[in-house]
Amino acid sequence: MFKKQLSLFLGLFVVLLITISGCKSSFEKLKTSNDNNKKYTEAVKLYNKKEYGKALELFNDIAPKYRGSSSATDLFYYQAMANYKLKDYVSAAYLFKQFADTFPSDAKAEECRFLHAYCYYLEAPDFSLDQENTQKAIERMQLFINFHPKSERVAEANKLIQIMHEKLEEKSYANSKLYLDVGNYQAAVISFNNTLRDYPDTKYAEEIEYLIVKSQYEYAKRSLETKQVERYEQATTYANEFTEKYPESKYLSQVAALKKDSEQGIVKTKLILTEAEAELKAFKNENKKDSIQVKPSSK
After folding, report:
1. SS (H, E, C) the chain
2. What percent of the chain clears pLDDT 70, i.e. is strictly above it?
3. Residue 96 contacts residue 81 (beta carbons within 8 Å)
4. Position with higher pLDDT, 146 vs 126
5. Band of the pLDDT at 23, cuts 50, 70, 90?
6. Residue 147 has pLDDT above 60, yes or no
7. Domain map of the chain by residue range?
8. Listed ranges 5-9, 22-26, 111-115, 224-228; the one with the highest mean pLDDT
9. Averaged pLDDT for residues 159-175
10. pTM flag (> 0.85)
């Protein structure tokens, strides 16, 4: 009984192997054949079955032979879409652009221009990483809107641009905060101000303006005494502007404390500078007296 079952299992396994190898050999035979029409037909079937890898192999193989033919446009589109479905967004972006540039009047040109930009959006990394692709995606999405201002995809394009702007805003805020965290206070002040300039409607505006006061105070505190007064004064200016703009802010007490410390810093620094100036003046007067009293002997 066991031997019969084993024989039956082995028989089925052999049949399965033959079937699989037969399928593989059928595809391989098609790849090596010269029947381009059959390759194209089979590639479309494979694409529609979502077997994008195999479909793309055949599309890539016959693409050079179809240039200038009536099927070239569809084949080019299938190539781009197969790469897109396989998540090879770099290749897909290139092919979508090539399609739109080569066949600008084709009905699929609008979709390809949008997908070209969308591929860059999909390739854009998290805000903590380099945002070059995010910048490119915004530029290309805006270009799509300029080309097709009445397209149904314009609303989606604008939404994606907004999402990407928020990502750049997040990146700018994180970079500014990093300067503060590592103690580069001058760079923090400049960077926070740049963030507010570039993203005036940022959700971090209140916190950023508080951190500007804090960074400016820390920058003044660590400056040379000859530079401290003007830098403390700038901190008090930032503090006054914050208080006027956000009278109900949760950071109000911290800002008030920073302003008070800055004002005390101004008084203290002026006193030190006055004393230093007096000491220098006294030292010069003393030297002058000594030079008058000590005269060279005449021979």
Report:
1. CHHHHHHHHHHHHHHHHHHHHHHHHHHHHHHHCCCHHHHHHHHHHHHHCCCHHHHHHHHHHHHHHHCCCCCHHHHHHHHHHHHHHCCCHHHHHHHHHHHHHHCCCCCCHHHHHHHHHHHHHHHCCCCCCCCHHHHHHHHHHHHHHHHCCCCCCHHHHHHHHHHHHHHHHHHHHHHHHHHHHCCCHHHHHHHHHHHHHHCCCCCCHHHHHHHHHHHHHHHHHCCCHHHHHHHHHHHHHHHHHHHHHCCCCCCHHHHHHHHHHHHHHHHHHHHHHHHHHHHHHHHHHHHHHHHHHCCCCCC
2. 78
3. no
4. 146
5. very low
6. yes
7. 184-268
8. 111-115
9. 92
10. no
Cα 143 from Cα 161, distance rounded (Å): 11
Task: Tokens for 289, please give them.
Answer: 């007296």
